[in-house]
Predict the 3D structure of the following.
Amino acid sequence: MLLELRNVTKTYWSGVMRNKAFHAVKDVNLEIGEREIFGIIGESGSGKTTTCKIIMGLLKPTSGAVLYQGEDITKLGKAKWHELRKSIQMIFQHPQMTFNPRSTVYSACAEPIRIYKLAKDADEEREMVLGILDRVGVSRDQLEKYPHEISGGQAQRLSIARTLLLKPSLLICDEPTSMLDISVQAQILSLLKEIHGKENLTLLYISHNLDVVAAICDRIAVMKDGEIVEMGNTDEVFSSPKHDYTKRLLSARI
Amino acid sequence: MEPVLRIDDLCVGFHVRDRVVNIINHVSLHIGENEVLGLIGETGCGKSVTGSAVLRLLPDNAVVAGQIDYRGKALLPMSEHEFNRLRGAKIVSVPQSPSTSLNPMMTVGMQVEECLTRRPDYSKKAQQVPVRERVQQIFERLRLNERGKIFRKYPCELSGGMCQRVLISMGAITNADLIVVDEPTKAVDWILRAGVVDVLRKMKEDYRCAMMMITHDIGVARALSNRIAVMYAGEIVETGTAGQVLDHPQHPYTADLISALPENGFHVTEGFMPSFEEMPAACRYQDRCAHCVEACRSGKPEMHETEPGHFVYCHRCRGE
């Protein structure tokens, strides 16, 4: 198992006495195997993104453990995480908002190389960036542009390119296509699928769009109010849903 | 029968620096009584510009040519004063992005009320039903009641789906004749999307209004529209009933768009939509089209009727 979540719970406390509990994520258990495409579906506010953030180490769970290659990563220190971040990467929902508006596309793409000192000199750095841009299908004349000058689809390709530079083994995609229209969505999905086919990559794909999930995921988990209500192979869940909520979700297909 | 809206040969351009960039190119459409026309196409193809042209909400640098008739009356030459009597009363818009279209400093009830009280012909005495009562009624209709509390809520206290329904109620409250709905399901999740579709369908049945629905969501277009017009790079490429266009697409662009859906295996079409500043002169889809022939590069495709009511602008459909 590449990634295992064991009884992960995230609770927020509110109220005057800090006595009102809200369970954003409640007792989540899941296992993701190597080279799998695992999907999490559910409506807004069901805890999908919180789960992601816990796996990414951006949030500490209230209780429970996240095992990555057998090691509990919730208790790691900053230095360890710096190393680990190379193998766990994430693509966000709003592509344009993930780029620094004041730096060009080139320096945004070169940033991971600089942080992890992957290149010996500027020439090698440039070569790596150009190589990765070709991979994701962004033309080279985009390099000196600023994030607001590129389209949403281009920006999403670039954020995929940035993560690929680090050769991650787990890529978390948090609704990468919900802001894009269908023809661009098709481009991004087939790019992800192609990368998954070539590299040793595991995808955790989060979405509320059932059509997308049905098209690319091997296994899925359905989340509601912070809990996983159903989990299984995509075909099984879609053809014979067990839980009422899953049935409701599937009947909302139009 | 006279259609509710008839757009004839509409061209819209924008002054950019010292030139005019042409965006909408000879678009002709019509919407009949109690009919929903779905206008689909990818981002930046001119769907929203067409909608704004009907509502005369284009920015000052726009150049509009052609004819837009609402029940036989030409809208474009109308004076601003005259048009204001129609816009908001008979021709209504439901804008996109509910989070930014509502006034954050006003309760939603007041905002919906304004749609009635700010009309030039409004007088308090003439109302048979108090305005507030009517607002409550429409909220109830759209399942927004929550025991009458919603009236006093601010937009920030509501979820995205609720804000969307508030916007729709603003469109419905004036008993409009023609509603321009812009991307009603953008950025709402799966269950809310089904809810919004439900609300729009109910509205169509209850108010018997004509609707122009601008969307890139083909599922929503299929669920709601009677007829569908497909737009690419500022031109209409195909129109017909929802079944004709979506199940038997004749234009290569429509076919590519439908095969890009995830359930159809997300096939990728090579290339991008050309920039409006360097549009190819003949068929605008020529560079991306898999069936491109010599004629596509030399002449503008004309309209062909492939079956009754199904119109396609493509050279390949000629003589079929």
Observations:
- Chain B has one domain: 5-90+174-317.
- Chain B has a mean pLDDT of 87.
- DSSP finds eleven helices and twelve strands in chain B.
- Residues 259 and 267 of chain B are 6 Å apart (CA to CA).
